Amino acid sequence: MVVAAGREGLFSAIRALRDLVERELHSYGHANPPTDAAHVEQLRALQLGIDELDVMWEQLDAQSHHLAVERERYAELFAFAPDAYVVTDGKGTIREANLAAVDLLYRAGSYLAGKPLAAMVVLRHRKRFRDLLGAIETGTVRCSWRGLIRRGDGEETEVELTIGRLRDGTQLCWLLRPI
After folding, report:
1. Cα dihedral angle (113, 117, 118, 122), rounded to 10 degrees?
2. Is 120 exposed, middle or buried, given 0-12, 13-18 or 19+ CB atoms closer than 10 A?
3. Helix (H), strand (E) at residue 99
4. 90: which DSSP letter?
5. How many CA atoms are closer than 13 Å to the CA of 116, on its beta-carbon side?
6. Which residue, 156, 148, 112, 114, is CA-closest to 128?
7. In the structure, what pLDDT confidence band is assigned to residue 2 with cuts at 50, 70 and 90?
8. How far is CA 129 from the centre of its chain?
9. The pTM is what?
10. At what angle do helices 37-79 and 2-26 cross, to 10 degrees?
11. In what order do the strands lie in the sheet with 84-89?
């Protein structure tokens, strides 16, 4: 993982700098008294800064771990939610679908990703569906629609869709409930 390698690289660089400063400070031991007190003081200030970086690094690492756990928790909650959820971009192209949506649409999750949700809507209902999508694009925050979808097995199923715009403004969250 690139982020992990970057983090470990930064951590290694901080450790190498710490070792360099400590070697330099030890070179001014009792056998070799410092001739430049200002230089020694700068090294001690640098060592203190590195100590502070270590503390911040540990806090950042703990936060990173916490966020990873929360991300996994969210992914699990989304995947196993009892209702069918689909996340699309603003144009209605599917980005994510949970297991209930995969079951309802009767299509593999890998098939759904990148497909327009409109393609699942029965042809005679698509204009109404696209009108709804247009309304949400123009600023409506949340709305509902009832219509027919065609499942992967060819069966038509009446559903109620509730659509909400996510906070980032570029994605839509769809709740699909069979009627």
Report:
1. 100
2. buried
3. helix 99-105
4. T
5. 10
6. 148
7. very low
8. 28
9. 0.69
10. 160
11. 94-97, 84-89, 171-178, 156-165, 142-150
Could you give the C-alpha distances from 139 to 34, 60, 126, 156, 166, in angstroms and in order? 69, 37, 20, 30, 12
Residue type, 90: G
172, 164, 150: which is closest to 104 by C-alpha?
A: 150
Residues 6+ apart with CB under 8 A from 104: 84, 151, 157, 159, 176, 178
Residue with token string 């409930």: 177
Q: What token pair was written down for 88?
A: 């699309």
Closest CA to 141 of 161, 175, 165, 169: 165
Query: Helix-strand-coil percent breakdown of the chain, rounded to 5?
Result: 55, 20, 25
pLDDT in tens, 103-152: 999 998 889 999 999 999 999 999 999 988 888 877 777 888 899 999 99
- CA nearest neighbour of 129 among 159, 104, 106: 159
The backbone region for 139, taken as left when phi is positive above 0, alpha when psi lies in -120 to 50, beta otherwise, is left
Contact 113, 97 (CB under 8 A): yes
Q: How much is the pLDDT for 1? A: 41
